[in-house]
Amino acid sequence: MEPIKVGLLGFGTVGSGTFTVLRRNQEEIKRRAGRGIEITRVAVRTPAKAQAAEGVAITDDFHAVVDDPSIDIVCEMIGGTGFARELVLRAIANGKHVVTANKALLAVHGTEIFEAARAKGVMVAFEAAVAGGIPIIKALREGLTANRIEAIAGIINGTTNYILSEMRDRGIDFATALKGAQELGYAEADPTFDIEGVDAAHKVTIMSAIAFGVPVQFDRAYVEGISKLAAIDIRYAGELGYRIKLLGIARRTEKGIELRTHPTLVPEKRLLANVEGAMNAVVVQGDAVGTTLYYGKGAGAEPTASAVVADLVDVTRLHTADPEHRVPHLAFQPDSLSNTPILPIDEITSGYYLRLRVADVTGVLANITRILADKGISIDALLQKESEQVDGGNRGETDIILITHETVEKNANAAIAEIEALSTVVSNVTKLRMAVLN
Fold first, then answer.
1. What is the average per-residue pLDDT within 377-384?
2. 20 alpha-carbon distance from chain centroid
3. What is the mean pLDDT of residues 36-60?
4. In the UniProt entry, which residues are flagged as the active site (predicted)?
5. Same domain (yes/no): 191, 256
6. Domain containing 106 — which CATH number?
7. 33 in the same domain as 105
8. Catalytic residue among 5, 120, 203, 297
9. What is the C-alpha separation between 220 and 348, in angstroms, rounded?
10. Quick one: 87 and 120 in the same domain?
């Protein structure tokens, strides 16, 4: 049988890694796929950078690859949401299957792309778009298909996880940890997408669509990064038995779906709290299977290429299959997607970490607890630090750190506003959310 022919768009870290893995393991891959898989054309803006692709036609004309009638699968590795969207839709219109690692493209334009692919009878595979080499998309789409998924919580950005690990282990501030991450190549020169939570939010948006059978809705996700996180909060969280992680969370509730990314306190005994450095991990809660954990490298040339090549094998196996009997892109049949609402952040339910600096006078704690009680918020744990133990603190001032039981966010915000209005409170309240993990 003739090999499947692949056109590769982009030859950067993931593109070159895909070429290397596919060529190195070609015999093993052929045995698994049932036929050969060959990259026959590569499009790259600077052809000299793709010299490692020996024996392959190299061009700087991306449209020529997408329009080539001999190409069966277009492998999009250029990133971004503009030119990549144009090329992917054009490939689909030409009747070609698409494999992509582009989480931003799918989080923003996924609904349009999947509908175009369905109408044309082709596949869009995207395992590498979420958590690098961890096969979380296949687990959600196929392995857990018997389950009603209740929640997902994931460390799905290695850059931020490395930074938070360094801040905790070395007791350094965010800026110092970020600089170290950039020097080691874990963070980009412009790290905004990573440190502000956008990358993780793209990924959890894709996972939420598959888990709950809803359209891809990145515009409704709540996104908060770690750039304002203080080292003192990481230390205090540790004293209370928690570690702070940037989590992407998607959770089913009676009111709707929570879709949010933010720094989160996780109990230190949980497996997720002990994922360190640049590693990724995703916890999935299903009604039948219970809690499952998926752990591994979330980035890098070959870990991500592992997922790309797995997608190429899947597409090759199903290349001639009846389009109506393939696994749907978002796990659920397109006409069965739900319109379950995505909740605004004010409506989510969580426990909270609250830190505030107060004048060390009689009655201040009583006033704070009264305000919380009036809003129906109970306290789970309390830590009080005298002024000499507080970074930059003045004598006569104390840090109070509270852990609350679960409440609706708007109630927590209302309580915080009243607490900050007290004359004895000398700082704004720092608020961090807690993880709800079984």
1. 95
2. 26
3. 92
4. 203
5. yes
6. 3.40.50.720
7. yes
8. 203
9. 13
10. yes
Q: Residue 75: is its pLDDT beyond 50?
A: yes
Question: Does 188 count as an annotated binding residue?
Answer: yes
Q: What three-state secondary structure class fits 81?
A: coil
**228 is annotated as an active-site residue:** no
On the question of pLDDT at 362 being above 90, the answer is no
Decide: 262 and 221 in contact? Cβ < 8 Å: no
Report whether 248 belongs to an annotated binding site.
Answer: no
Residues 178 and 251 in one domain: yes
Residue-level pLDDT at 390: 44
Phi/psi for 96 (5° steps) reads: -105, 145
b (16+ CB within 10 A) / e for 370-387: ebbeebebeeeeeeebee
Task: Look up tokens 């490298």; give the residue.
Answer: 297
- Rounded to the nearest integer, the mean pLDDT of the chain is 93
Same domain, 147 and 283: yes
Are 142 and 290 in a shared domain? Answer: yes
CATH number at residue 249: 3.30.360.10
Split into its structural domains, the chain has a count of: 3
Percentage of the chain exceeding pLDDT 90? 84
Which pTM value belongs to this model? 0.93
372 is in an annotated binding site: no
Same domain, 259 and 329: no
Q: What is the pLDDT of residue 413?
A: 98
- How far is 268 from 153, CA to CA, in rounded Å? 15
Looking at residues 138-152, what average pLDDT do you find?
A: 95
Query: Does residue 285 sit in the same domain as residue 325?
Result: no
* Both structure tokens of 417: 């506003």
pLDDT at 438: 61
* Helix, strand or coil, per DSSP, at residue 200: helix
Query: Which residue type does 223 have?
Result: V
Of 275, 310, 336, the residue at which a domain comes to its end is 336
User: pLDDT tens digit string along 407-423?
Assistant: 999 999 999 999 999 99
The domain boundary residue, chosen from 336, 358, 388: 336
Whether 150 has a binding-site annotation, put simply, is: no
Joined tokens for residue 294: 């998926």
Show the domain range for 372: 345-434
- Would you state the pLDDT for residue 337? 81
13 in a known ligand binding site: yes
